């Protein structure tokens, strides 16, 4: 397994090295601005299934996707509405996952996603964002098993997970240490999970 320490910073080759593993179908532990996640290419069905198996997550619970820009979000989802624009402007990059209606067409298909909606986020962490830019859309759900807290440090990741991945990247403590807030705007505005961003602030920005 590749073990990379970037607590003192990283070089472009560090990003390229991990991106190559992801493009080749690998999965591994990466830092985000919220908590450590298990990363895989969102377009690689086998790799995404592997992440879900490691997390013991049922296949009927699609994983949110990390993108690098609002433009890319618009390729995958219908991101033009007033609520979407306001939330992305205020909280991206950052700790808000926005569930939007799926867009259909070239470049919009991703395996193991709901046909009607998709959760998207731009991470506010330099290494994580660089990986998305180099490798493509990523899934990176929190690197914990059911019932366990999401890890804010690499040393908090359970050994059962570390033993089943191809790489781990240590960047020290994550900025927030709390999972992202998840808001669904497919029909109205509903906060599905309150995390790093207060639900009241989400509703205020969304204009509800």
Task: Give structural notes.
This protein is an alpha/beta fold. The protein has a single domain, classed as DHBP synthase (Alpha-Beta Complex), CATH 3.90.870.10. Helices cover about 30% and strands about 20% of the residues. It is built from seven helices and ten strands. The chain has a ten-stranded mixed β-sheet with strand order 1-8-2-3-7-4-6-5-9-10, sandwiched between helices. Strand 9 and strand 10 form a beta hairpin. Helix 1 packs across helix 5. The longest helix is centred in the first third of the chain and has 12 residues. It is globular. The N and C termini lie far apart (about 45 Å). The model has no long low-confidence stretch (mean pLDDT about 95).
Q: What are the key terms here?
A:
208 residues, alpha/beta, DHBP synthase, 7 helices
């Amino acid at each position: 397994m590749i073990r990379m320490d970037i607590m003192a910073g990283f070089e472009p080759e560090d990003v390229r090295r991990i991106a190559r593993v992801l493009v080749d179908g690998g999965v591994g532990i990466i830092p985000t601005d919220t908590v450590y996640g298990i990363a895989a290419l969102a377009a690689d069905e086998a790799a995404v299934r592997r992440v879900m198996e490691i997390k013991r997550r049922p296949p009927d619970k699609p994983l949110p996707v990390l993108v690098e820009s609002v433009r890319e979000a618009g390729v995958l989802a219908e991101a033009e509405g007033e609520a979407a624009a306001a939330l992305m402007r205020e909280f991206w990059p950052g700790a808000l996952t926005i569930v939007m209606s799926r867009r259909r067409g070239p470049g919009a298909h991703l395996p193991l996603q709901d046909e009607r909606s998709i959760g998207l986020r731009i991470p506010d962490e330099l290494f994580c964002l660089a990986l998305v830019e180099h490798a493509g859309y990523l899934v990176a759900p929190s690197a914990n098993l059911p019932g366990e807290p999401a890890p804010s440090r690499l040393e908090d990741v359970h050994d059962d997970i570390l033993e089943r991945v191809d790489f781990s990247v240590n960047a020290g403590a994550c900025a927030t240490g709390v999972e992202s807030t998840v808001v669904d705007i497919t029909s109205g505005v509903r906060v599905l999970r309150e995390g790093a961003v207060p639900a009241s602030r989400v509703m205020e920005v969304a204009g509800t």
